[in-house]
Design brief:
Layout: H1 2-20, E1 26-28, E2 35-36, E3 42-46, H2 53-57, E4 62-63, E5 69-70, E6 78-87, E7 93-99, E8 106-110, E9 115-118, E10 133-138, E11 143-151, E12 158-159, E13 161-164, H3 166-201, H4 204-223, H5 226-231, H6 234-242, H7 244-262, H8 269-289, H9 304-319, H10 325-346, H11 359-397, H12 402-443, H13 447-470, H14 479-494, E14 497-504, H15 510-531, E15 535-546, E16 549-556, H16 570-582, E17 586-591, E18 595-602
Parallel strand pairs: 1-6, 14-15
Antiparallel strand pairs: 2-13, 3-4, 3-6, 5-12, 6-11, 7-10, 7-13, 8-9, 8-11, 15-16, 16-18, 17-18
Helix pairs in contact: 3-4, 3-11, 3-12, 4-7, 7-8, 7-9, 8-9, 9-10, 10-11, 12-13, 13-14, 13-15, 14-15, 15-16
């Protein structure tokens, strides 16, 4: 009897302990949405990728405090995630669990009653988003434990889970898709723009840049999951994943080809030899890495020094006086940093995906914009060379017979037609880019983003207006009209009552007008943005020629020094670069009851 009582007490204590144990279930309601599940979950790494669900349930799971975790390249390992949800309401709940990495090849979702397979290699027809999603339903006050198995043989396993209401998820997916569409629209527009220029100029730098843009589009469409979701079947998704290193090799080769042509690296024999060696080594290593044939995807770490080599070549060319190198260094700095961070995360070395979700898109877009300026500057240099050749040809043709002179005039007429067609194409492409930016501006609610998009729009408009003036059959371009067009557009965008006065006593030549327009856009935009309230502002723009020097002044009566020569903002960088590199002048600013910015250069 005593033994029976003792056993009964032990059993009672065990039951009391189990009953009093704290519940680790995540309590959710109708309003529960956009919840980071992974920090509230546990995980277990199956080193053999052979364990069944019943075996996994007996394993000891580890706690996790990270929103996102990269488990690196490990084809023999699978990652299990366990979490519990409890419906704390008296009504049924329907939620969506989002697995935010579209590249994981196989994802199996267990809810205790069913088994759902998703992932890059198993995209179901019922999926309505780029990222894998799983719909769950909980009865009133029901608690259930869920398991997710993630496995990849080629790509890395990066885990991030979110819990959504269906409506909130639909809005988030639409917003995400809009950003992707914007990125690919800009890339496509730049691709067409450079294609037309290449067809007219046959400059190999444009050809290699076209290849690079194609590589960006292909890689980003794969990296973002767009290609697998919209265009590829399960078979082709698996094939693309197995041969993903060839896409990376294509991008690296196009980068190196463009670098050699754009920076004329043949004048630097040693660096050029290193670049040429990558053209042979990278494709061979990538081919041997396909489907983990000889190397697995960890071999990508060998490609990281190539990014450093490309940057070093850019800085070295800049040091040696190659003018195009300044745009190259700035643009590639953004891209190389983005690629380095992405690859380090892919290798599991860093975990920063939540901070740089769109870092590649932003870096490639900014780089493409900078390179558009660089290539436009290249056109200017090319045109100057063409003019010199025309003069030499004319002197030679003056000694030829009348028939040869007539043939020269015909050739010049054809060249003029091509030049006008080129400007027409450039103008149309500017309008396409502006339309995309305006469309995006209408659809965003973030005031900071709206201001940033408006600033980008005005910068592009300042160049587009000049192209429009180039279409006029006039010998001189009207500096005052050009400046007014820029200021009026900025004033309309900010909707502020500002008194603008112009003291323009000098007409700028075309090679200086484009840079002054860009400078004016930056200075006036900053005055409207920071110096003026809704009304009562005053802005004075002066351009005069005194003693073989041009004085260009923009002065406001704002209460704050908006943009000074000592600032480190992007606006100051643009103004400083345009003044020192293109006008060979000086930029100074002072504040005395208003900001006065003055640019001076010799004529």
């Amino acid at each position: 009897m005593l033994k029976f009582n003792m056993n009964f007490k032990i059993l009672f204590l065990i039951l009391f302990y189990l009953y009093s144990m704290p519940s680790f279930a995540i309590e959710i309601t109708n309003k529960s949405s956009n919840i980071e599940l992974f920090p509230l979950s546990q995980y277990y790494c199956d080193k053999t990728n052979q364990a069944s669900l019943e075996e996994i349930k007996k394993k000891e799971f580890l706690t996790n405090n990270q929103k996102i975790r990269s488990f690196g390249f490990n084809p023999n390992q699978s990652v299990w995630i366990k979490f519990s949800l409890k419906n704390s309401t008296s009504t049924p709940l329907t939620k969506i669990v989002e697995y935010t990495n579209p590249l994981t090849e196989t994802i199996i979702f267990f809810d205790g009653k069913r088994e759902i397979i998703d992932g890059t290699w198993h995209i179901p027809k019922s999926r309505k988003s780029i990222n894998p999603t799983f719909i769950i339903t909980l009865k009133p006050h029901e608690e259930r434990t869920y398991y997710i198995k993630a496995h990849s043989t080629i790509s890395t396993v990066i885990v991030q889970l979110k819990l959504w209401n269906p409506k909130d998820f639909a809005n988030q997916a639409t917003h995400h898709l809009m950003l992707i569409v914007l990125f690919f629209s800009i890339m496509g527009t730049l691709l067409l723009y450079n294609l037309f220029i290449y067809l007219f100029t046959h400059d190999r730098a444009y050809l290699y840049y076209l290849l690079y843009l194609i590589a960006i589009i292909l890689n980003e469409s794969t990296y973002s999951g767009v290609a697998q979701y919209y265009f590829l079947s399960s078979y082709w998704s698996q094939t693309v994943t197995e041969y993903i290193m060839l896409l990376i090799a294509f991008m690296i080769v196009s980068i190196v080809l463009f670098t050699r042509e754009f920076l004329h690296t043949t004048q630097f024999p040693r660096l050029d030899k290193l670049l040429k060696s990558t053209l042979y080594g990278v494709p061979i290593i990538s081919l041997l890495s396909c489907n983990n044939f000889l190397f697995n995807s960890n071999i990508i770490v060998l490609f990281l020094p190539i990014g450093l080599l490309v940057m070093w070549v850019g800085f070295y060319a800049l040091y040696k006086g190659v003018k195009e190198a300044r745009f190259y260094v700035l643009g590639w700095s953004l891209v190389i940093i983005a690629l380095l961070m992405t690859n380090l995360q892919t290798l599991g070395i860093i975990h920063i995906n939540s901070l740089v979700k769109y870092i590649n898109d932003f870096a490639f877009t900014a780089e493409a914009f900078l390179f558009s300026i660089a290539l436009a500057h290249r056109i200017k240099i090319t045109n100057e060379k063409i003019i010199q050749l025309q003069k030499s040809e004319q002197e030679r043709l003056e000694r030829l017979v009348e028939q040869k002179t007539h043939e020269l005039k015909v050739a010049l007429n054809k060249e003029e037609l091509l030049y006008r067609e080129l400007n027409h194409r450039v103008k149309n492409n500017f309008q396409m880019i502006l339309s995309l930016i305006k469309l995006q501006n209408l659809k965003v609610d973030n005031p900071t983003l709206k201001k940033a998009l408006l600033t980008i729009e005005n910068r592009i408009y300042s160049i587009a207006d000049l192209y429009a003036l180039l279409q006029l059959d006039t010998k001189e371009l009207d500096t005052l009209s050009y400046f007014k067009a820029i200021v009026e557009r900025i004033q309309q965008g900010f909707n502020k009552e500002v008194d603008v006065s112009y003291n323009i006593s000098y007409s700028l030549p075309i090679n200086q007008l484009v840079y002054c327009g860009l400078i004016l856009n930056e200075l006036v935009t900053n005055s409207f943005k920071y110096a003026f309230k809704a009304r009562g502002g005053k802005l004075t723009i002066t351009l005069e020629h005194v003693d073989s020097s041009v004085y260009f002044t923009v002065e406001d009566n704002g209460k704050t020094a908006t943009l000074t020569s000592n600032s480190t903002t992007l606006g100051v960088l643009i103004v400083q670069t345009l003044v020192t590199e293109h006008l060979n002048g000086e930029f100074q600013s002072s504040y005395n009851n208003g900001l006065r910015s003055t640019i001076v250069w010799k004529t």
